[in-house]
Each structure stands twice: as C-alpha cells, then as structure tokens.
Design goal:
By secondary structure, this protein is an alpha+beta fold. The chain has a single domain (about 5-20, about 30-145), classed as Pnp Oxidase, Chain A (Roll), CATH 2.30.110. It has helices at about 5-10, 10-15, 20-25, 75-80, 105-115, 120-135, and strands at about 35-40, 45-60, 60-65, 85-90, 90-100, 140-145. Strands 1-2-3-6-5-4 form a six-stranded antiparallel β-barrel.
C-alpha cells in the first residue's frame, strides 16, 4: 500500500511519531524547523500535543507556525480557546508560551517570505495542503508563539 504525502499528513500514527522524541528530551535530534506544541484540549481540558514546522523564527522568543488544515485543525481551535501553551524545540523543553493568530496581512507577508526563502519546500507543502484539503486556495492561518523569557 503506497501512501502519498497528503495521506501521510492525515495519518495520525505518522504525524504523532516525533512526539515521544520530544517528550523524552530528544527534540534536538530533529531540525530546528520542527517544534512540539503542548496545548490544552478545549473540551477535555487535557494536555494535547502536535508537531509543527516553524514557518518563521522571528527571534529566540517568537516563532510562527501555520495551520495547513486551516481553522478546523484541532490544535488551532484549542489555542483559540486557551492561548497559553508550551513549546519544545531543539534543546528547549516545555517553554511556556502564548499563542496569537496573525492578521491576514501579517500571515500573507510571512507566507510570502517563507515561499521566497524555501521555494522547493513551499511548492511541495502547498501541493500537499491543496490535495489534503481539496481546496485549490486553502486558508492557512498563522500563529505566533511568544515564548516566555529566560525559561
């Protein structure tokens, strides 16, 4: 059985595979362009985890991630309900953060920059998002994660 990239991104086992690495403190084995976001389930109140690509590293305390599945992604909806979260990336583990959704204009500027800096990755990723969502012009909201100082 051959899985395409869009199917892989919708495969729970595949997308959750890096979580145990991060939880064991081995996130540094992955590229700095990957982070694990720990957020609170808006209904359950339980800790939830998702691994995301860092679209823009604005500074040591500000990272931007994209919701490729739009505003219906569970992690995105959870952050809208409770923006306080934790971020693990590289050697950093469970750093407190607060999430804010970028405006449409800010998001468009960040995606344009990403497209310019990573044209091959953008081409592949945007094609996967279109295939996975079935939307030829998907809404890709971006979220800024403001990490707590000195944590």
């Amino acid at each position: 059985m051959k899985l395409d990239a869009a199917s892989l991104l919708q495969n729970r086992r595949f997308v959750r595979a890096p979580i145990p690495l991060f939880r064991a403190g081995l996130g540094f084995l992955l590229t700095r362009r990957i982070l694990m976001l720990e957020h609170v389930g808006r209904t359950s109140g339980l800790a939830r985890y998702v691994v995301l690509e860092v679209v823009l590293r604005e500074s040591d305390t500000s990272l931007v991630v994209a919701s490729g599945f739009g505003r219906r992604a569970q992690w995105f909806r959870n952050l809208l309900a409770e923006p306080r979260c934790h971020v693990s990336t590289g050697f950093t583990r469970r750093r407190p953060a607060v999430a804010t959704v970028l405006t449409d204009a800010e998001g468009a500027a960040v995606l344009a920059r990403y497209q310019q800096e990573h044209p091959g990755a953008w081409e592949r990723l945007s094609a996967i998002i279109v295939e996975a969502t079935g939307d030829p012009e998907p809404d890709i909201p971006l979220v800024r994660l403001a990490l707590a100082e000195g944590s």
